[in-house]
Amino acid sequence: MQESKENLSITSAPEGKTEAIIAYITVIGLIIAFVMNNEKKYPFAKYHIKQSLGMVVVGLVLVLISLIPVLGWIIYLLGLVFMIYMWIMGLIHAVNGRMEPVPILGDRFEEWFKNF
């Protein structure tokens, strides 16, 4: 009796995937990912570090805006919801091994940190 074997398609994870995922886990994770990737310079990790860094910058701007009474608080809360959405999408892209920008601002982050 002859057994048929299935062709198992195993996709290899891109180099730097661990660093890319770590970059999305708090600001400390971003720093750790930057240090880990500093020696090997994986393009995949570098891409996601830039995306995460962009989200940190936007988060800091939102914190400054929140200092404005009432209107600043509203903008901050809406921005916070938007930031959570961007963070989830960025993390999903990193876990799935895709180099896709976070929604709406991801392309800007690439421009801002092109020399990074």
From TrEMBL:
Keywords: Membrane, Transmembrane, Transmembrane helix. The chain crosses the membrane at residues 20-37, 49-68, 74-95. The keyword S-adenosyl-L-methionine does not apply. Its main location: membrane. One of its GO terms (cellular component) is membrane. InterPro entries: MamF_MmsF. It is found in: Membrane. It is a multi-pass membrane protein. The keyword Lyase does not apply. This is Integral membrane protein. It comes from Algoriphagus marincola HL-49.
